[in-house]
Specification:
The complex is a heterodimer of chains A (about 950) and B (about 70). With about 950 residues, chain A is of the alpha/beta class. Chain A is built from 29 helices and 37 strands. In chain A, the strands form ten sheets. Chain A has an eight-stranded mixed sheet, covered by helices on one side. In chain A, strand 10 and strand 11 form a beta hairpin. The radius of gyration of chain A is 29 Å and the shape is globular. Chain A starts with 18 loop residues before the first strand and ends with a strand. Chain B is mostly helical and about 70 residues long. Chain B has one domain. In chain B, about 75% of the residues lie in helices and about 0% in strands. Chain B has four helices and no strands. The N and C termini of chain B lie far apart (about 30 Å). Classes of the chains: A alpha/beta (about 950), B mainly alpha (about 70).
Chain lengths: ~950, ~70
């Protein structure tokens, strides 16, 4: 086991199908037309010396180290910028070239500190390698001339440092920031000898526009930009490819290690979701895995007012099993249930739902997708026949118009946002529909063609208005609709949306959007070429969440924007394995593969495999479990990797439900907010400590590989297995691959998936079976999974959460780049440097009316509750709208959100809460009391050693 | 949350479902609402709304009420 070394071909791959033959150093090689000479040489194994070239970036041709001779051409052209030509004869090495390269290197080294032995890049420095490659033995100029040595290091960023003394001004970092990340935070300031890399206007990295994605650090060929962890630990000695455990993009990383210590996480170029890019969370924010707050020993307590007592795993598991058995004996079989985690692996999620269906003997299983993308599952299944997005991420490269609604990808899905921004720079058009002026509306080199600033809660109105324009202006793709869709449903939909009350003009009072903008957006989406819809929780987390998903499906079908590359309906999933947890049968009405529990043949196949009978009735969803707990009929809950007391709406209701239960079991890394109401704490393992798979937002199944021993002693699937065995339902898996084999055996869309396949292919997108042995990047190519695409009438129904004199503003919630969900992980990393507390964004007009200035404490009051936090006065939100995040538990953002929910799925309406804002002196009494409760309920009696 | 509040919550949820299907013909809508309740509501929830409807069903939209009655027969 050593380090995984990816080949750097120097320049990007050409995509042409035509092959060109040329001779390099006497060998004939065939490469695609458009390939650079440098890449062609590397493809046959010859590495031409280089410094400014790397295959993540466009050719630049500045370092002059990659010079070659080409017969019949004058001079010594740079191989990185010279494309191959038929019959070309290239010489990569001779005396002349060697002399030229040594001359170049001599100049570089004459202005470079000679501290290789103590340099953090020692052993991983391209400058050092190239000095060796060109045979540099002497620097004739000496080292006493004017130079750039001895400059102050910029250590402002917590994750990497910038040492300008070591910079060779190759511009790789600047180009990476532009081409890969698309932030344009770096530039070369000055000219000639004064030229230097500069974040922003010669600011420190931390103070600049830098988003700490790490692309510049990765691109740097020297120790100029270097991970702080490498400076502190040293170079890694082995690595494994694994999958990030943050958002639904699912970036592949090389976990580079020394022993069991992570040295750094480096984005994997062959990762098909991220193609070698990363964000600040996946690249750097993994320190939580070894944070002192981690609980590594099981704990139990009889009452939530008692201190925790550390116990052995045997005692914890036996106690948990006895409690669930007691509760079921006393209150009935359906008095217990469980929640699977979208942060855990497919195998772990599958096992939890199996434990509940087979071990508990009921279907009371749900997952955190309930509160995010459950409307996606319902809506896309109803319209197309599959509860998943239609495209792969690469599809965006052929999108001409992107319709982005209810998503903020630069913060929530930053690596995919970089792909979107790249496509925009190539000329694609963007329509943003969002109450906030998110970064995709306008930032350097990003400019949305149209921004429709809707009022929160009016998605269905605006989408139906778009449909009205498409139908009444004859923009429907009739051929597609006739060939691919259900004619009756189309007819009903067409009749409905063409009614005058659905026109942009009629809807303007509701949406707050100028009708002309709506008409322009509809025309652009329908006529602009490949139209691709990307959406997020701003669509789903509404009382009409499912209706909005259906409305998006309607738009895509009506305009023929489905069934090929570059188009589609694409949910941007929040957590790393939301797609997978849904696929694995985490919903109470569905077995793995989205098949209803009432389907006898499906149920029987599981019954045969599991050796038990399965309830044919749907179980309770998360909010229903809490209602039933308050009602006295639900008494025990097993929660793996989910913090409902922070993430779910109307916290008072959540905590009342949890408090009414007799046995709450929390399996997690930390004593989270839900654990305050738990009787058993089973310490969980991080993604670095386990084997398994995650499935990202594009249905891509990717391996998670264990790089260190679980600090708690067990991988999470092993804990579930221990519990199941203690309950009397035997599980005997030796490795997660066996669980995947069982999933594949029982789930048609996963029939071809195995760990062997994943080793061979790297990753695969379901459906993967006999029909699609290598997976399915784009769905519904020939026909919809359900046969014909079905249109649904989507009548706008205003939420019952209305503004009025008492609560005149609308609160909407979201997340930011540096923090993730409830913050349990990112709050325990240096990411807090960017976001130490949740803030309330308020428009200057609303702020002035209330005497609110930037940074003061304000009280947010709704019909459900009130909390206090600091204000940020900004025009990013429209007048009448306020916004906050929910990354910090003390904010208690969800004490003000209501329990209104989606009509079809009970997905909470986080995005619309009527509130009033007033000045405050600080935290509310409830917040202070909650802090006290948190301290009291987290007391631990340490077991004697 | 009292039993009455829980009943009202179920009524609210059933009415939300009925509202979505408001544009459909009566028979079709009632069948869709019934199907939704059967597919997604846990038996305890269905039993409560059936019982509530049997005792008058105050506040239920006509189509939601018809769906619950259809549900109780199946």
């Amino acid at each position: 086991m050593g380090l995984i070394h990816e080949i750097d071909f120097g320049t990007k791959a050409a995509t042409a199908e035509n092959l060109v033959s040329l001779t390099i150093d006497g060998e004939i090689v065939q490469v695609p037309e458009g390939t650079s000479v440098m890449r062609a040489a590397m493809m046959m194994g010859t590495q031409i010396p280089k410094l400014c070239a790397t295959d993540m970036l466009d050719s630049f041709g500045s370092c002059r180290l990659c010079l070659v001779e080409i017969e019949g051409r004058a001079g010594t052209p740079a191989s990185c910028t010279t494309p191959v030509a038929q019959g070309m004869v290239v010489h990569t090495q001779n005396e002349r070239l060697g002399k030229l390269r040594r001359g170049v290197m001599e100049l570089y080294i004459s202005d470079h500190p000679l501290d290789c032995l103590t340099c953090s890049a020692n052993g991983d420095c391209e400058l050092q390698d190239m000095a060796g490659a060109v045979g540099l033995r002497d620097v004739r100029y000496g080292y006493d001339g004017e130079n750039h040595l001895g400059q102050t290091k910029d250590v402002s960023n917590p994750y990497f440092q910038f040492d300008a003394s070591k910079c060779i001004v190759c511009s790789r970092c600047v180009r990476a920031c532009e081409e890969v990340q698309g932030t344009f935070a770096l530039t070369i300031a000055g000219r000639g000898f004064d030229a230097k890399v500069s974040p922003g206007m010669e600011e420190k990295f931390f103070d600049s526009e830098c988003v700490s994605c790490g692309a510049c650090v990765q691109a740097c060929p020297t120790a100029t930009l270097m991970e702080t962890s490498v400076v502190e630990i040293g170079q890694p000695e082995h690595s494994k490819v694994t999958t990030c455990a943050y958002c639904g993009v699912g970036c592949s990383f090389k976990a580079e290690m020394r022993g069991e210590q992570v040295v750094r996480m480096v984005p994997f170029k062959d990762g098909k979701a991220n193609h070698g890019h990363s964000c600040v969370k996946g690249r750097f924010a993994w320190g939580y895995a070894t944070h002192q707050d981690r609980i590594t020993k099981p704990m139990i307590r009889a009452a939530i007012t008692d201190p925790w007592r550390e116990v052995s795993w045997d005692e914890a598991i036996a106690y948990t099993a006895s409690e669930f058995k007691r509760i079921q004996a006393k209150y009935g079989q359906s008095a217990v249930g469980g929640i699977t985690s979208s942060r855990c692996t497919n195998e772990e999620t599958y096992l939890v739902q199996k434990l509940i269906r087979a071990g508990f003997g009921n279907n009371n299983v749900d997952t955190c997708a309930r509160v995010c993308h459950s409307p996606t599952g319902y809506g896309l299944s109803a319209a197309f026949g599959t509860s998943a997005g239609t495209q792969d991420f690469d599809s965006v490269e052929q999108a001409d118009v992107m319709l982005l609604i209810g998503a903020n990808p630069t913060d929530g899905h930053p690596v995919f946002a970089s792909r979107m921004k790249k496509r925009l720079r190539e000329g694609a058009k963007l329509i943003v529909i969002d109450p906030r002026r998110i970064d995709m509306v306008r930032t350097p080199h990003v400019h949305a063609a149209l921004h429709l600033p809707t009022r929160p809660g009016t998605n269905v109105a605006i989408l139906t208005a778009l449909a009205h324009v498409i139908v009444t202006e004859n923009l429907v793709d009739s051929d597609f609709v006739r060939a691919r869709c259900d004619g009756d449903s189309f007819g009903q939909w067409q009749d409905y949306v063409s009614q005058s009350q659905n026109s942009p003009e009629a809807m303007a009072d509701v949406t707050g959007v100028a009708p002309d903008l709506v008409r322009e957006a509809a025309r652009l989406y329908a006529n602009g070429g490949n139209g691709a819809i990307y959406y997020g929780l701003g669509i789903t987390e509404h009382s009409q969440g499912t209706t909005a998903v259906l409305a998006l499906a309607n738009l895509a079908m009506a305009t023929g924007n489905l069934g090929r590359v570059g188009v589609g309906v694409n949910p941007l999933r929040g957590q790393n394995n939301v797609q997978g947890s849904c696929d694995m049968g985490s919903f109470p009405h569905e077995l793995p593969g989205y098949r209803h529990v009432s389907m006898t043949d499906v149920r029987e196949s599981f019954e045969r495999a599991w050796g038990v009978s399965i309830e044919p009735e749907p179980g309770l969803r998360i909010p229903n479990m809490l209602d039933a707990a308050i009602d006295g009929t639900f008494k025990g809950l097993y929660i793996q990797g989910e913090d409902i007391a922070q993430s779910d709406p109307d916290i008072k209701h959540i905590t009342a439900g949890l408090s009414a239960m007799e046995c709450v079991v929390v399996q997690d890394l930390f004593l989270n907010e839900t654990a305050q109401f738990a009787h058993v704490f089973l310490p969980g393992s991080t993604f670095l400590e386990k084997n398994g798979t995650f499935t990202n937002a594009e249905r891509r199944i990717q391996r998670v590989r264990k790089v260190m021993s679980p600090k708690n002693g067990y991988e999470d699937w092993e804990i579930t297995q221990l519990l199941s065995n203690a309950l009397g339902y035997t599980m005997a898996y030796q490795h997660p691959s066996e669980i995947m084999d069982e999933i594949a055996h029982l789930t048609p869309s996963f029939a071809g998936v195995s760990y062997d396949l994943l080793e061979r292919e790297g990753s695969v997108q379901w459906p993967c079976n006999e029909t699609a042995p290598h997976g399915t990047p784009v769905m519904h190519m020939e026909h919809f999974v359900r046969g014909e695409g079905r249109f649904f009438v989507t009548e706008y129904v205003a939420t019952d959460e209305k503004v009025g004199p008492r609560f005149p503003l609308l609160l909407t919630t979201g997340r930011i780049l540096s923090q993730y969900n409830v913050g349990a992980q990112t709050r325990r990393t240096e990411n807090t440097a960017w976001h130490q507390e949740d803030l309330l964004e308020i428009h200057p007009f609303d702020a002035e009316q209330r005497g609110v200035i930037d940074g003061v404490w304000v009280k947010v009051a709704s019909r459900a509750g009130e909390t206090s936090l600091r204000a940020k006065v900004t025009e990013r939100v429209a007048p009448g709208v306020v916004y906050t995040t929910f990354h910090h538990p003390m904010t208690m953002a969800n004490i003000v959100t209501t329990d209104y929910s989606d009509w079809a799925t009970n997905c909470p309406e986080y995005k619309v809460t009527a509130v009033q804002i007033s000045l405050s002196n600080g935290p509310t009494d409830a917040q202070i009391a909650y802090a006290t409760l948190g301290r009291n309920t987290r007391q631990i009696e340490i077991a004697a050693e | 949350m009292s039993h009455e509040q829980q009943d009202q919550k179920l009524v609210y949820m059933a009415n939300q479902i009925a509202t979505f299907f408001a544009s459909r013909p009566e028979d079709e809508a009632v069948a869709e609402i019934t199907n939704h309740l059967r597919k997604f509501w846990e038996p305890r929830m269905r039993a409560k709304i059936i019982d509530f409807t049997a005792h008058g069903g105050a506040g239920l939209m006509p189509r939601a009420e018809a769906a619950v009655k259809m549900l109780s027969k199946s």
